[in-house]
UniProtKB/TrEMBL annotation:
Gene3D superfamilies: Glycogen Phosphorylase B (3.40.50.2000). It comes from the Bacteria. It holds the Pfam family Glyco_transf_9. GO terms for molecular function: ADP-heptose-lipopolysaccharide heptosyltransferase activity. Keywords: Glycosyltransferase, Transferase. GO terms for cellular component: cytosol. This is Glycosyl transferase. The keyword Cell membrane does not apply. GO terms for biological process: lipopolysaccharide core region biosynthetic process. InterPro entries: Glyco_trans_9, LPS_LOS_Heptosyltrfase. Signal peptide: none annotated.
Length: 307
């Protein structure tokens, strides 16, 4: 009789940034259980993050419905499977109702320390699970075709709310300041009209910039980011994706908590606007300050800003 296939259910965030942060946990599980296959549950915006993963046999998108009926839909999709393990990073009741040999349930509430470290402690691991990305050969080929030459300066001038956005004219000034070092600007932003409108002032002021924003798959975006020499952007899912792709990444923080949401990776850096954490304004973060850190990253001596 053939051995039963080892199936692991991995429930992660609806939001892109938190989903990217959770990829380190998924990667650690895949290394620990090399024979397992995975079903990932996430929000629609994050689904493309997991689709290129060859160990992921299914991605279930959890789209919110009235009266929490989306959880009933998910239960119906999962209840017939006998799982080897259920890993629930959302602390839902659903994970208690499924047949499984093991459960790892992460409860919310803690806000001290970086998110990756919170996950490490919640799962009882000794090593921090660092985020990663998956790309296909087609993603890599597209990135190679679109970003020949360089070096490329990736800019992420958008975010999910205006308070987290560094003024557009400062992104323009930053690009102009780094042009003297041969950097060529390329803009990234998410799908939808709102994202395009937030990026428009930078695009219009930098007509030579390559526009790679919009409705691209996350695997393709990750492959494109991996070919850039530096990413500078607001606290956003795109910032976390850049860091996970291994791109030298400088995250800009104002009212959001850098101590919790700083990018994670081997080449991840962050700078915060002056003022109390959680109550600072990106209006107070100067071009000179960001440009200085960006140049230090490119020169390999920005250790004090490493996260």
């Amino acid at each position: 009789m053939a051995p039963r296939l080892m199936k692991i259910l991995f429930i992660t965030s609806n939001r892109l940034g938190d989903a990217v942060i959770s990829t380190g946990v998924l990667d650690a599980l895949q290394k620990r259980y090399p024979a397992a296959v995975f079903t990932v549950v996430c929000g629609p915006v994050a689904a493309g993050l997991f689709e290129p993963d060859p160990r992921c046999e299914r991605v279930i998108t959890l789209e919110k419905r009235r009266h929490d009926r989306h959880w009933l839909d998910l239960w119906s999709a999962c209840v017939r499977t006998r799982w080897f393990m259920v890993v629930d990073l959302r602390g839902s009741l659903l994970s208690l109702t499924l047949r499984t040999r093991r459960r790892l349930i992460v409860k919310g509430g803690r806000r001290d320390g970086r998110k990756v470290e919170q996950l490490r402690d919640a799962l009882g691991r000794h090593k921090t699970p660092m985020p990663r990305v998956w790309t296909s050969s087609q993603h890599d080929k597209t990135a190679e075709d679109l970003l020949a030459g360089g070096p490329w300066l990736a800019l992420g001038p958008t975010a999910n709310w205006d308070g987290k956005i560094w003024p557009p004219e400062r992104f323009v000034a930053l690009a102009e300041g780094l042009r003297r070092q041969g950097m060529r600007p390329v803009l990234f932003y998410g799908p939808g009209d709102a994202e395009k409108e937030r990026a428009r002032p930078v695009l219009e002021a930098l007509p030579e910039a390559l526009d790679l924003g919009g409705d691209r798959s996350l695997g393709e975006v990750a492959a494109l980011l991996a070919r850039c020499a530096l990413f500078v952007g607001n606290d956003s899912g795109l910032m976390h994706l850049a860091a996970a792709a291994g791109t030298p990444t400088l995250g800009l923080f104002g009212p959001s908590r850098m101590s919790e949401y700083a990018p994670s990776g081997t080449e991840a850096f962050a700078i915060a606007a002056p003022g109390p954490e959680g109550n600072a304004s990106l209006e107070d973060l100067s071009v000179e300050a960001v440009l200085g850190v960006a140049k230090a990253i490119l020169a390999g001596n920005a250790g004090s800003f490493r996260t």
